[in-house]
Every structure is written in C-alpha cells, then in structure tokens.
Design a protein that fits this description.
Layout lengths: L1 H12 L11 H9 L9 H14 L6 H21 L2 H13 L1 H8 L7 H18 L9 H16 L4 H14 L6 H28 L5 H9 L9 H20 L7 H24 L7 H4 L4 H12 L13 H13 L14 H8 L6 E4 L8 E4 H16 L3 H20 L7 H14 L6 E4 L4 H6 L3 E5 L6 H8 L4 E6 L9 H7 L2 E8 L2 E8 L6 H4 L4
Parallel strand pairs: 3-4, 3-5
Antiparallel strand pairs: 1-2, 5-7, 6-7
Helix pairs in contact: 1-5, 2-3, 3-8, 4-5, 4-7, 5-15, 7-8, 9-13, 12-15, 12-19, 13-15, 16-19, 18-19
Length: 542
Amino acid sequence: MFFAILAVFVFLRIPGLDNLYHQDEYKWSSIVLSDNSYIPHPPVGEAIYQNLGMVVRADNFRYIPFIFSILNFFLLFYLAKIVFNTRAAFWSIFLFSVSFYSLLASLMVDTDGAVMPTFFLIASIAYVKLKRMNFQFSIFNFQFWLFAVGIIGGFLVKTSFIIAIGAFTLDFAIEKGIFSNRRRFFKYLLYCIGLFVLLVLTLLASKLIFPSFNLQSSISYWEHFAKFSDRGWLQTFIQFAKSILYTSPLLIVPAFLINKEIWQKTRPFFLFIILGLLFYLFTFDFSTGALDRYFQFLIIPLCIISAAVFAGTPPLRKERGWGEVVLVLISILIFSIQFFTHFVPPLYPKAEWLSRVIQLKWNFLFPFTGGSGPTGFYVSFLFIAIIWLCCLVFLKKRALLPILILGILYNGVFIEEHLFGKINGSPYPLFTEVKEFIASDKNIKKVVVYNDIGGYEIQKLGKYERRLYAAPQFQKTYQDFFVNFSGHVLYIDIPRIGENNFYSNYLSACKSIYEKKDRYISAKILECLPHPLPLPLQRGGK
C-alpha cells in the first residue's frame, strides 16, 4: 500500500518537472549562474539550492523541491503514525499525494512549499515524542536535539518559521497549564524571551558559516511588509481566497468533523494554522507578496487532521442512500460543467471577479497564476463553486464518501489543467512554439515579456528586455519605458489584460507578427515602434 501511494505521488509530479520557471523562480537558478546573487532570507535555504543546484544544474531546479517533497512524504507518514495509527498515516500520504496544493508545492522553486515543511515535520516528530516523555529536556535526549535541529534549521531557512516555533511554545504552555498560574507564567515567559534571544544569536552566528549572508538585506526585506496604513485588503482577500481554492474541500471540509480526541492530538497543528493565518493576514501587509505561496504551510497540518477524520473518527463508510452509481453520475455531471461556454474576465479590475461571484454569474474562468508559479491555467468558477457547495451540504450530513469523491475530482481537474490544460488551454505548448519563432527571427532583438511567462528562456536566447506587469500601479513606469521603446512584446494572455486601458491601447497599436491559440489562451508577438501614448494614460486612466 505504501509504495503504491508513493508511486501515485511520483507519477503525478513527474510531468511538471520540466515546466517553465515563472517569475521569482528563476532568481533561485541565478544562484548557480552568478556569485553575486542573493536571496533575502536566512542562509540555509540559499545554501541548499546552491549546493544541490550544482548537481542538478540551473535548468533543473524543480528537482530540489521534488526531492524534499519525497522526504516529506516519508516524514509525514511517520508523524501521522505516531500521532494516530497506521491507517491514519496511509490516509495522510494519500491526501498529500492527490492534493493539487501539495503537487504545486512539490514543484515550486522556493522554500515555503517543500524545504520549510521538512524542518516542520522533523520538529513535529520530535515534539510529539518529547510530549509523551513529559518534556524531558536533556542534552542526552536524542529527541531534544532532533527538535533543536528542526526549529533552528527551519528558522535559518526563513524567519517566518517563527510561526511554527510559536505554535509549539503555545501548545507546551497549554499542556503545562502555564496560563493558570501567574508565577509559572512569568517564569516561562522569561524562557520564551531567552529562546528568542537564542534564535537571534543563532541568526547572527550563521554568518560565520555562511559569510555571504547579509543580515541587513534580510531585515530590509521584511521592512517592505511592515506597512500598516493603506493596506491592500482586496488583494489580500483575493490571494487568501485563491489559497483556499488551492487547498480544496478535500483537505479543509473534513477538518470540521474532528472530535475531542483528534483536537487533543493535533492541537499543535491547529495552533500552527491559526498563528500562520494571523501572521500573514494581519501582522504585516503581504498584499504585494505571493500569499498563495506563503499559505502552503497549511498543507501538512491539514493532511494530518483530515486523514484522522477519514481514518475512522468518525469512520469512513458507505453512506445510507448514496450508492456508488449515483455518486459517479453526480461527479460526471459536475465535471461536464467544465465544457460549458465561459466568460474570461481580465486581470483588472479585480472587483469584477467579486461582482460576478456576488451576482451568481459563475460561468467564468478563474485564472490561477502566481509570483513563483503556477505559470497560468484556467478552471471554471462554476465547477469550483458547485463542488464546494456540495461538500458543505455533505459536511452537514457528515457524509464523508461524497466529500472524498468530489474532493478527488476537484483536485484532479486542478492538477490536469496545471500540467496539461486539456480543457481550457495551456501556456506551455504555446511558449515552446513561440520560443522557436523568436529564436529563428533575427529581426527580433529585444523582447518585453508579459507576466514574465517564459522570461527565463528568453533570457537564455539573449533577447530579453524586461517583463511587463499590466497593473495600474505600474502604469507610470511603463509610460516612461514605452514612449521610446522599439522592439517586440511576447503576450501570452493568461491572465488577460482587458480592454480600454493604457496597456491594451498601447499593445493594440503594435503590429501582430505571430499568433497561435490553445482554447482560451493565445500567444502573440507584437512588433512595437515609438508612437503617441494612448489617451487613457494621458488622462490618468486605470
């Protein structure tokens, strides 16, 4: 059984190992190509990519998170087994294997999705065992050192690992009844302050091992998010909603069926989820960051929690009144929604998406893309909404089997569209062909790449000029650039720019020399020469 699930895990991810680097992803590959590159985080993550990158080479960096995700597969099984039992362990790795969010994290060139969870799993395994030993902290205790490796290693990958450390600390405080005794509370508060000081000193000392580590640059990076006025709440909400859609009802809905036993055994994981949500949604302003990437911390704890529910608490059984045939027919009907005619909204204004949702105009394609991937794919929002609504109905009935089947269908569609795009189109085959055209045309010398789709590959051709983000806040920047620009624009239209704005008006004035379409996604090469700026820009339109 174990190796069968492992085979599924690997089989689903192999097709994505050669996917294009997207936006921030190729910054990691530059670590191998240049000695001057720097990732604005503690040094361990960079060291991992730098050393393993020398083995897999710059074009194969997806193998690094993939390797860590396989390690996480084994660690997750062991953790779920010691927390619950073997049955729950099998369910946890099954959910981990078929979850789209897990697949995305397994292939994303970054540290949030695969590297940091490794240290979280190591720390969690040690913490569970220490908890059963009544927290016998001793330098002669192997679990103590394993826990130290987990929390220090995770913190030196990314300082946001403080969320996990906070969850373990809070669970320890609850377990020991620290909040019920004032004297004990202040005693352990001093211990927490000491732990914080120790982590800071460890961060400072890491420069001795990694001389290239620039603490000041790391601090400056975090100052970028320390904004408490004029926060982009709409953008934050949209990114959070997208993360929930990625996580899927398969991981989220069963978590609402926990009992007292599951809560007690998974309390550190629930605390981890709560603290993480508070941190990313309210503590800092991450509206300009890749929140959908940061929320990958949800995957591991939800796999364990939902696995416990599926494993038998309450037991998974055939629900009365629901035959397998009926469930299959319902699934087929819901799946067929994908092939209805759908509207494709532009990227901006994003309020239009919310408007269509509120007005129940759900027959539109939702674009899924991010700063570190995915490159871009569409899924019917009507399909998404119906499955979520059905799962919520079955949640009320405590019917696990329909939730399981619909959850697998949901994640299956996301995985298929991300990897292949057979329903709504894929940017990958489009880029492969357009890249050949750009490479063969000697007249194409400078290429501006929309949404940076294929930017890394265009750089290797030596024809990359810059990327284009069609966001209203960047309009002035592109005004200054395009006024004298002479060259080409690669426009793979996911997400679409829309109409009657500066970007669309500028591009419409360019000459199309190449165009190819794959269902709802098209690729164009536009030849642009200096020409008068479009009127919406001159008027300050958005």
